[in-house]
């Protein structure tokens, strides 16, 4: 599938800026990271503040105004191609949404910017393509998580992300609670009521899934896998694995 990046960059305005109404010929993705601006898409006006995400497609009528006294910073991307067309069609893409400014997402955007700045002949179009896909998919997840906040409080989402990032390392329930600015008791109760599992149970599920992948696709010893996946010791890994799947890790590996 083809992909073409027309422009990818970051802008910061302190003295105002305006772009009159025009019809877009490509997809425009814009994320407000600081300050404030006013966007109009297809005659619908929307103020964008920090975390405001704009998703527009070819044919949309677009205009932007940043007041002269207003500070405004944003990442923006202009792109087109068959992969973007398919990505856009497969799920609803709200024109305006509010997302969390996750540092990993911003780092991904910055990586794409740097790659696109390389002189002609030195850039890696394949790498840019993968970065673009990863960025679009990450933004799609961010929008989905924002929409899920009606049924799942945002602190729970923060705890889920923390556990997913640290599951194979040693962490305490206190660390998870702190990531969501909650007390331990409140964090534990909120997490269990929304997810249906305790914080530790969720972490163990991730560790087991990681261990299974390593048993399938690496030659590491089971003792090394137990340590590498956050179980600490093999006896503990053996006990948890057998309780979950009914067979020992060694038996599971021999069946694969």
Gap between N and C termini: 34 Å
Structural class call reads: alpha+beta
| Large-scale geometry | elongated
The strand order across the widest sheet is: 1-8-3-6-9
Number of strands: 9
Helices and strands, in N-to-C order?
EEEEEEEEHEHHHHHHHHH
Q: Report the total helices.
A: 10
Helix content: 40-55%
Q: Calculate the mean pLDDT score and round it.
A: 90
What percent strand? 15-25%
Profile the largest sheet: 5 strands, antiparallel
Unreliable runs: none
What does the radius of gyration come to? Answer: 23 Å
Describe the structure.
The protein is of the alpha+beta class. It contains ten helices and nine strands. The strands form two sheets. It has a five-stranded antiparallel sheet with strand order 1-8-3-6-9. Strands 2-7-4-5 form a four-stranded antiparallel sheet, with no helix packed on it.
Short description:
The protein is 48% helix and 23% strand. It is an alpha+beta fold and 256 residues long.
Looking at this protein, list some descriptive labels:
single chain, 5-stranded antiparallel sheet, alpha+beta, 4-stranded antiparallel sheet, 256 residues
How is the topology of this model organized?
Blueprint: E1 4-13, E2 17-23, E3 27-35, E4 37-41, E5 44-48, E6 52-56, E7 61-66, E8 72-80, H1 82-89, E9 96-98, H2 103-117, H3 125-147, H4 154-166, H5 173-179, H6 184-195, H7 199-217, H8 222-228, H9 234-245, H10 249-255
Antiparallel strand pairs: 1-8, 2-7, 3-6, 3-8, 4-5, 4-7, 6-9
Helix pairs in contact: 2-3, 5-6, 8-9
């Amino acid at each position: 599938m083809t992909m073409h990046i027309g422009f990818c960059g970051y802008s910061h305005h302190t003295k105002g800026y305006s772009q009159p109404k025009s019809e877009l010929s490509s997809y425009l993705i814009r994320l407000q990271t600081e300050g404030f601006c006013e966007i109009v898409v297809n005659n619908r006006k929307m103020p964008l503040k920090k975390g405001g995400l704009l998703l527009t497609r070819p044919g949309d009528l677009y205009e932007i105004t940043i007041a002269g006294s207003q500070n405004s910073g944003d990442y923006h991307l202009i792109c087109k191609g068959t992969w973007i067309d398919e990505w856009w069609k497969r799920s609803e893409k709200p024109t305006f949404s509010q997302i969390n400014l996750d540092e990993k997402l911003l780092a991904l955007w910055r990586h794409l910017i740097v790659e696109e700045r390389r002189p002609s002949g030195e850039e890696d179009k394949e790498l840019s393509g993968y970065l673009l896909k990863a960025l679009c998919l990450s933004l799609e997840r961010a929008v989905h998580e924002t929409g899920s906040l009606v049924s799942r409080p945002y602190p729970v989402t923060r705890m889920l992300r923390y556990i997913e990032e640290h599951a194979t390392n040693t962490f305490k329930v206190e660390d998870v609670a702190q990531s969501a600015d909650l007390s331990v008791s409140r964090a534990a109760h909120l997490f269990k009521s929304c997810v249906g599992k305790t914080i530790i149970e969720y972490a163990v599920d991730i560790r087991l899934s990681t261990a299974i992948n390593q048993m399938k696709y690496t030659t590491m010893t089971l003792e090394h896998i137990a340590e590498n996946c956050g179980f600490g010791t093999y006896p503990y890994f053996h006990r948890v694995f057998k309780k979950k799947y009914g067979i020992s890790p060694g038996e599971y590996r021999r069946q694969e």
